[in-house]
Amino acid sequence: MSGARRSNFTAQSTTEEVLSGIDLTGRVAIVTGASGGLGEETARALASRGCAVTIAARDEAKLEKAALRIQERCPNARVDVGLLELSQPASVESFARRWLQDHGPLHLLILNAGIMACPLLRTDEGWEMQFATNHLGHFLLTARLIERLRQSAPVRVIVLSSGGHVISPVVFDDIHFERRDYDPWSSYGQAKTANVLFASELDRRERASGVRAHAVHPGVIHTDLGRHLTPEAIRSIVERATEGGAETPKTVEQGAATSVWAATAPELDGQGGLYLADCGIPAAPEAGGKGAAVHARDADAAARLWAVSEETLDVSFPRSAN
Question: Residues 99, 188, 198, 306: which is the catalytic one?
Answer without folding.
Answer: 188
